From TrEMBL:
<feature type="coiled-coil region">
    <location>
        <begin position="185"/>
        <end position="212"/>
    </location>
</feature>
<dbReference type="InterPro" id="IPR000163">
    <property type="entry name" value="Prohibitin"/>
</dbReference>
<dbReference type="GO" id="GO:0016020">
    <property type="term" value="C:membrane"/>
</dbReference>
<keyword id="KW-0175">Coiled coil</keyword>
<protein>
    <recommendedName>
        <fullName>Band 7 domain-containing protein</fullName>
    </recommendedName>
</protein>
<feature type="region of interest" description="Disordered">
    <location>
        <begin position="272"/>
        <end position="327"/>
    </location>
</feature>
<dbReference type="Pfam" id="PF01145">
    <property type="entry name" value="Band_7"/>
</dbReference>
<dbReference type="InterPro" id="IPR001107">
    <property type="entry name" value="Band_7"/>
</dbReference>
<dbReference type="InterPro" id="IPR036013">
    <property type="entry name" value="Band_7/SPFH_dom_sf"/>
</dbReference>
<feature type="domain" description="Band 7">
    <location>
        <begin position="7"/>
        <end position="183"/>
    </location>
</feature>
């Protein structure tokens, strides 16, 4: 009697639940963690783990539920190439639907539901993408799509999917070699493009510097030519001034009552003082006013000589002392 009473109580581990089936009343009830009474002889029980469980499918030896075989999911891509997917799924059971799961599926629900659903979703999703998207650029997008479709497929039966992650993507040996060769060629092409761009950039910088040097040289040459032109224009201006002066000292200023010798001398020799009009030297009849012409023979510019002296001969110097007019 004591033995029968002792076997009527069961200890349910933490995080577990015990499904109890009464064979007489044909009813089910759920025993939670802790001590639970189980009628002897007429009860059939099944323990379920309600904690988060891991289900791994991998081709690496020693990993996953089937550690001794290659458990990768091989699926064709959009081009028909085979790729192997290693993944891990975290899930747990809904306690409120545990009795229904026990009635409809049983304790081996991972093989019957989880594994079958994952294999189906993997093949469906992978077949919609090119192989290079599966391998690199859209891997996160593919993983999200697999998560979404797996949850929608199994949660209606009471299996809650926490997360599904793609651990690895593998190819056949032949295709792996082809991808490796393509990546090497792509990296080499990118390096060549980068080298070409750097070379062209340096060449452009060199041309800019060369153009700036030429522009500076042209500015220096133009400045020197402008200065030289100004030096050549000085004698021309002096010659024009002397020609104008010779024209102004023409016949109207030769001699006679119409002319003014003081004015002629003042124009020919600026700064020279003139005699008063009443002096003997100022009288028109006492002295003739010489006339002058401009000769450009001097290296310092044009010079004035008397019209009676040719430009090729120097003007004769006076033999006596130079008389300067009194102020």
């Amino acid at each position: 009697m004591l033995l029968i009473l002792a076997t009527s109580f069961r200890v349910v581990p933490v995080g577990h639940a015990l499904v109890i089936f009464n064979t007489v009343s044909k009813s089910f009830r759920l025993g939670r963690q802790g001590i639970t009474f189980v009628p002897p002889f007429i009860s059939v029980t099944q323990d379920y783990d309600l904690r988060r469980l891991e289900y791994t499918m991998s081709g690496v030896s020693g990993e996953g539920r089937k550690a001794n075989i290659d458990d990768s999911l091989w699926s064709p891509t959009q081009e028909g190439l085979q790729v192997g997917i290693d993944l891990t799924l975290w899930h747990h059971l809904d306690p409120a639907r545990l009795i229904s799961i026990h009635q409809r599926i049983g304790p081996d629900y991972e093989e019957k539901v989880i594994r079958a659903a994952v294999r189906s979703v993997i093949r469906l999703v992978i077949s919609e993408y090119p192989v290079m998207d599966v391998y690199s650029s859209k891997r996160a997008l593919i993983q999200d799509e697999i998560n979404r479709k797996t949850k929608a497929l199994v949660e209606k039966d009471g299996f809650i999917v926490n997360e599904l992650v793609l651990r690895d993507v593998r190819f056949t040996p032949e295709f792996a070699k082809a991808i490796e060769a393509k990546q090497i060629a792509q990296q080499s092409a990118e390096q060549n493009v980068r080298y070409t761009l750097e070379k062209e950039q340096k060449e452009a910088e060199r041309k800019v510097i060369e153009a700036q040097g030429r522009a500076n040289a042209i500015q220096i040459i133009n400045k020197a030519l402008a200065q030289k032109s100004q030096l050549h224009q000085v004698p021309l201006r002096r010659q024009a001034l002397a020609q104008d002066l010779g024209d102004r000292l023409g016949p109207e200023h030769d001699h006679g009552p119409e002319g003014d010798p003081r004015r002629a001398r003042q124009i020919a020799h600026p700064g020279t003082a003139t005699m008063p009009l009443g002096s003997a030297e100022a009288a028109p009849s006492a002295r003739q006013v010489p006339t002058y012409q401009a000769c450009p023979a001097s290296p310092w510019g044009p010079r004035l000589v008397r019209r009676s002296s040719p430009c090729g001969q120097p003007r004769p110097r006076p033999s006596g002392p130079v008389r300067r007019p009194s102020p």
